[in-house]
């Protein structure tokens, strides 16, 4: 059975630990649905925590800098330009929390609420199902939104996340998880020598306010081309006009899904850490993925092992739709209507390369 414990002294906030037959374990709290730990073996069988985060709950509660370590992100992931959108002729002005923009669901997004939780054990898997009812006008979004996120750990070292949502009024919805990975072990330096593949022919350039500029641009011949595996550092260029704004990779990629059904999982990204041999594969039903290299980490935050999180101390692979789609004609339709069900799945599959 999954282990359940109070997270520090907070009786309504618990820490759930799922452990599989291979010894891999994942710890998740019902505060923000945050993945606080992922323990996976290296090529020699040594278990290490490969996701960034805090040891104490109060650090998550009081994080002024909001790195969103391991959290569920919603109602709408990424940035909403000028914190507003128009739906059915009505303009909605959201809470601004990133300059003039609305970021990752606002000041009290899904990363900062307490979810109801239940566990389940089946043949070869263990699950944690989290549910939350986001009331009408929360963060100024329209409609009551019922959300469920199910984390499932399999005996084959896969961690899946299944997202569901229902609404009683049309509203934008785009959910993801904001886990940061360092396959050397959290706090063990940067990820610049991680070898990354992203199956995408195109990416979305951003403006100086980190909003997609509306263009979908080929990666061919650019620093953004990860179709063939390469280290993060290989084409890093601080002088690139995009990096002047983002300080590193923080861009959405349009995945190569043309030949796939909407509900078919695809291998969107593969990450290898050569020293440990650890491998992370990201499978998803989503059409896009945000690749972020922890550019705003600066060594001031201390990790679970007491080590500082340096710049590029972790990388994120956030499966999603295009950012600011609800304000950009030609981008994805992220409006959920009362007669529809929001349903999407992403899998983090861990392994080793001998």
- The shape is globular
Strand arrangement in the largest pleated sheet: 11-12-13-14-27-23-22-17-20
- Overall CATH architecture: Distorted Sandwich
Number of distinct helices: 2
Could you describe the largest sheet, including whether it forms a barrel? Answer: 9 strands, antiparallel
Please mark out the parts with pLDDT under 50 across 5 or more consecutive residues, or reply none. none
State the order of secondary-structure elements, H for helix, E for strand: EEEEEHEEEEEEEEEEEEEEEHEEEEEEE
Q: Give the distance, in angstroms, between the N- and C-terminal Cα atoms.
A: 31 Å
Summarize the structure.
With 354 residues, this protein is mostly beta strands.
Protein topology:
Layout: E1 3-7, E2 10-19, E3 25-29, E4 35-41, E5 47-49, H1 57-61, E6 72-73, E7 79-80, E8 84-87, E9 90-93, E10 102-103, E11 116-122, E12 125-134, E13 145-154, E14 158-167, E15 171-172, E16 176-177, E17 195-198, E18 200-204, E19 217-218, E20 230-231, H2 241-246, E21 250-255, E22 266-272, E23 278-284, E24 288-292, E25 316-320, E26 335-336, E27 342-352
Antiparallel strand pairs: 1-2, 2-3, 3-4, 4-5, 6-16, 7-10, 8-9, 11-12, 12-13, 13-14, 14-27, 15-26, 17-20, 17-22, 18-19, 18-21, 21-24, 22-23, 23-27, 24-25
Plain-language structure description:
It is a single chain. This protein is mainly beta and 354 residues long. It has a single domain, classed as Distorted Sandwich (Beta-galactosidase, Chain A, domain 5). The protein is built from two helices and 27 strands. It has helices at residues 57-61, 241-246; strands at residues 3-7, 10-19, 25-29, 35-41, 47-49, 72-73, 79-80, 84-87, 90-93, 102-103, 116-122, 125-134, 145-154, 158-167, 171-172, 176-177, 195-198, 200-204, 217-218, 230-231, 250-255, 266-272, 278-284, 288-292, 316-320, 335-336, 342-352. The strands form seven sheets. It has a nine-stranded antiparallel sheet with strand order 11-12-13-14-27-23-22-17-20, with no helix packed on it. Strand 1 (3-7) and strand 2 form a beta hairpin. It is globular.
